[in-house]
Amino acid sequence: MGTSYLTIGGLGASVGLLIYAGLTYMLTNYGFRFDIGWFLLAISPYQWALVGIALAVSLSVLGAALGIFATGVSILGGGVKAPRIRTKNLISIIMCEAVAIYGLIMGIVISGSISSFSATRIEDLALKYRAGYKLFGAGLSVGLCNLFCGVCVGLVGSGAALADAQNSSLFVRILIIEIFASAIGLFGLIVSILQSSGSNMAD
Amino acid sequence: MDHGYAEGLCRGFKSGILKAADYHNLVQCETLEDLRLHLQSTDYGNFLANEATPLTVNIIDDRLREKLVQEFLHLRNVSYQPLSTFMDYITYGYMIDNIVLLITGTLNQRAINDLLPRCHPLGTFEQLGGITIADTPAQLYTAVLVDTPLGPYFKDCISEHDLDELNVEIIRSTLYKAYIEDFYNYCKEIGGITAEVMCDILAFEADRRAFMITINAFGTALTQDERFKLYPTCGYLNPDGLQELRRTDSYEGVRDVAARYPVYKSLFDGSGTNLGDKTIEDKFFEHEVKLNMNAFLRQFHFGIFFSYLKLKEQEIRNIIWIAECISQKHRARNMGDDMMSYNGGVALAMKGKECVAIACDKRYGVQNRTIATNFTKIFQYGDYCFVSFCGLATDVSLLVVLS
């Protein structure tokens, strides 16, 4: 109970501070300082693209890790009394691993589109910014999709392992559910490829 | 999700619980040796392998319980917070039983060394041996129990009355009420599926206790208000049902209270006090088993550990019941062929070529005392039928007279 009081307290304090800061700016006529457009332009396109790569790889790996954790412990637990499930259920782990590989692929594809530029005119710069935003969006979409996909495949794989331990005919049926679950990671990959395909930062 | 290993292991243990086919085999056993043989082919394996040949029901009971305790402690050892706290809560119930056992034993002047081995192994704690030194509940609390996990449950039953037989039962009920309400609140705190599953099971347990306290208190010195203080409040009966139960005076009154709750109505309707009916305790056991089995239908919650323990305990009760029946049947075999049972005798019949022969002994004895040697045991019925009765002599005489 102590930790939840702490988190609520922290959350309340930070929200209060934000409201205070916002009101101060607004009421002292300095509201123009809070400029989102300036913020977006001040960050260079390189930064956007590279953060996109980081998100693609790290969130995918996070999803795969959570999935493998969920499935792995269930296989270990169920395998004590039913050793026959051990080898067959490694398929679930492989499907979780595939999710991490999608993130890796996208990281490589996005990083291929990054190159240095030396444009100064505003029309050219606009194209570079566009490329940066597109690469950021691609990385974010594949990362988040793979995060949820990995967790989903892991939980279903855990259920498959425990069901297999009770009754071996159930494994193949639940594997079909896992296949559908891993399809959603594939959707993220496809959308992200589409997003990053047209963008090129070269001059 | 964090406790996948313990959950997988628990489900593996649960799949080894005896099924209807196993019980069918066990019921067919003639001796306890057969029982041991049949149990070898189940998940129990060779747990009775090292026992000496005159197998008794007590030995089987001890070994079964030992195996269950081993499995539970293994699960407890591989678990971590918050599952470990949950499993500790499960053991508090056994601690309460052990405390009451020791207090009653001390009141009956039994030595501590006799009592400690009879304590339930899941409910041991360090200060267990010190319980026998106390005279009043207040002393018990301040000297021994204040540091144990059961300390907070004692505040309702500290009094300066001496510990005596009736008082000890009231202490047990008060402790159990505090424990079950605390456990219920802890499960609610955990939230999620655990709360859904466990709160249902614990609410039924609380209501069952309320019903049983009421029914068992009819005819004793327990007043209605004292009874009311023992009802746990975390069940579905709270608050209206408990007030009604407080005012009832008879079994019919209890049935009327139960009639307002559909689940309990069906349990009470299915039971009866005639010879062939199931008693209300049997129906409660059945319902408890059903709730515990349903706990296994959901994944990623702690209820399965509690349910596994309860289901295994019910299985042990079943096996011991079967073992008792076998050993009773052994002792009071049909008053027939065996001479040592009462009268006994032997008859022999043989078919020859176009003839039959029948022969029997003419001894009339009572176990090993021979009283006469001219007791006829072959009788003719019609032209072609001779029958020999070698069972209880009074039955034989009756049959002969009647025919």
From TrEMBL, chain A:
<dbReference type="InterPro" id="IPR035921">
    <property type="entry name" value="F/V-ATP_Csub_sf"/>
</dbReference>
<comment type="similarity">
    <text>Belongs to the V-ATPase proteolipid subunit family.</text>
</comment>
<feature type="domain" description="V-ATPase proteolipid subunit C-like">
    <location>
        <begin position="136"/>
        <end position="194"/>
    </location>
</feature>
<comment type="function">
    <text>Proton-conducting pore forming of the V0 complex of vacuolar(H+)-ATPase (V-ATPase), a multisubunit enzyme composed of a peripheral complex (V1) that hydrolyzes ATP and a membrane integral complex (V0) that translocates protons. V-ATPase is responsible for acidifying and maintaining the pH of intracellular compartments and in some cell types, is targeted to the plasma membrane, where it is responsible for acidifying the extracellular environment.</text>
</comment>
<dbReference type="GO" id="GO:0033179">
    <property type="term" value="C:proton-transporting V-type ATPase, V0 domain"/>
</dbReference>
<feature type="domain" description="V-ATPase proteolipid subunit C-like">
    <location>
        <begin position="52"/>
        <end position="110"/>
    </location>
</feature>
<feature type="transmembrane region" description="Helical">
    <location>
        <begin position="48"/>
        <end position="70"/>
    </location>
</feature>
<protein>
    <recommendedName>
        <fullName>V-type proton ATPase 21 kDa proteolipid subunit c''</fullName>
    </recommendedName>
</protein>
<keyword id="KW-0813">Transport</keyword>
<keyword id="KW-0812">Transmembrane</keyword>
<keyword id="KW-1133">Transmembrane helix</keyword>
<keyword id="KW-0375">Hydrogen ion transport</keyword>
<feature type="transmembrane region" description="Helical">
    <location>
        <begin position="90"/>
        <end position="114"/>
    </location>
</feature>
<keyword id="KW-0406">Ion transport</keyword>
<keyword id="KW-0472">Membrane</keyword>
<dbReference type="GO" id="GO:0046961">
    <property type="term" value="F:proton-transporting ATPase activity, rotational mechanism"/>
</dbReference>
<dbReference type="InterPro" id="IPR000245">
    <property type="entry name" value="ATPase_proteolipid_csu"/>
</dbReference>
<dbReference type="InterPro" id="IPR002379">
    <property type="entry name" value="ATPase_proteolipid_c-like_dom"/>
</dbReference>
<comment type="subunit">
    <text>V-ATPase is a heteromultimeric enzyme made up of two complexes: the ATP-hydrolytic V1 complex and the proton translocation V0 complex. The V1 complex consists of three catalytic AB heterodimers that form a heterohexamer, three peripheral stalks each consisting of EG heterodimers, one central rotor including subunits D and F, and the regulatory subunits C and H. The proton translocation complex V0 consists of the proton transport subunit a, a ring of proteolipid subunits c9c'', rotary subunit d, subunits e and f, and the accessory subunits.</text>
</comment>
<dbReference type="Pfam" id="PF00137">
    <property type="entry name" value="ATP-synt_C"/>
</dbReference>
<feature type="transmembrane region" description="Helical">
    <location>
        <begin position="135"/>
        <end position="158"/>
    </location>
</feature>
<feature type="transmembrane region" description="Helical">
    <location>
        <begin position="170"/>
        <end position="194"/>
    </location>
</feature>
From TrEMBL, chain B:
<dbReference type="InterPro" id="IPR044911">
    <property type="entry name" value="V-type_ATPase_csu/dsu_dom_3"/>
</dbReference>
<comment type="similarity">
    <text>Belongs to the V-ATPase V0D/AC39 subunit family.</text>
</comment>
<dbReference type="Pfam" id="PF00227">
    <property type="entry name" value="Proteasome"/>
</dbReference>
<keyword id="KW-0963">Cytoplasm</keyword>
<dbReference type="Pfam" id="PF01992">
    <property type="entry name" value="vATP-synt_AC39"/>
</dbReference>
<dbReference type="InterPro" id="IPR029055">
    <property type="entry name" value="Ntn_hydrolases_N"/>
</dbReference>
<keyword id="KW-0406">Ion transport</keyword>
<comment type="function">
    <text>Subunit of the V0 complex of vacuolar(H+)-ATPase (V-ATPase), a multisubunit enzyme composed of a peripheral complex (V1) that hydrolyzes ATP and a membrane integral complex (V0) that translocates protons. V-ATPase is responsible for acidifying and maintaining the pH of intracellular compartments and in some cell types, is targeted to the plasma membrane, where it is responsible for acidifying the extracellular environment. May play a role in coupling of proton transport and ATP hydrolysis. Regulator of osteoclast fusion and bone formation.</text>
</comment>
<keyword id="KW-0375">Hydrogen ion transport</keyword>
<dbReference type="GO" id="GO:0033179">
    <property type="term" value="C:proton-transporting V-type ATPase, V0 domain"/>
</dbReference>
<dbReference type="InterPro" id="IPR035067">
    <property type="entry name" value="V-type_ATPase_csu/dsu"/>
</dbReference>
<dbReference type="GO" id="GO:0046961">
    <property type="term" value="F:proton-transporting ATPase activity, rotational mechanism"/>
</dbReference>
<dbReference type="InterPro" id="IPR036079">
    <property type="entry name" value="ATPase_csu/dsu_sf"/>
</dbReference>
<dbReference type="InterPro" id="IPR002843">
    <property type="entry name" value="ATPase_V0-cplx_csu/dsu"/>
</dbReference>
<dbReference type="InterPro" id="IPR001353">
    <property type="entry name" value="Proteasome_sua/b"/>
</dbReference>
<keyword id="KW-0813">Transport</keyword>
<dbReference type="GO" id="GO:0051603">
    <property type="term" value="P:proteolysis involved in protein catabolic process"/>
</dbReference>
<dbReference type="InterPro" id="IPR016727">
    <property type="entry name" value="ATPase_V0-cplx_dsu"/>
</dbReference>
<dbReference type="GO" id="GO:0005839">
    <property type="term" value="C:proteasome core complex"/>
</dbReference>
<dbReference type="InterPro" id="IPR016050">
    <property type="entry name" value="Proteasome_bsu_CS"/>
</dbReference>
<keyword id="KW-0647">Proteasome</keyword>
<protein>
    <recommendedName>
        <fullName>V-type proton ATPase subunit d 2</fullName>
    </recommendedName>
</protein>
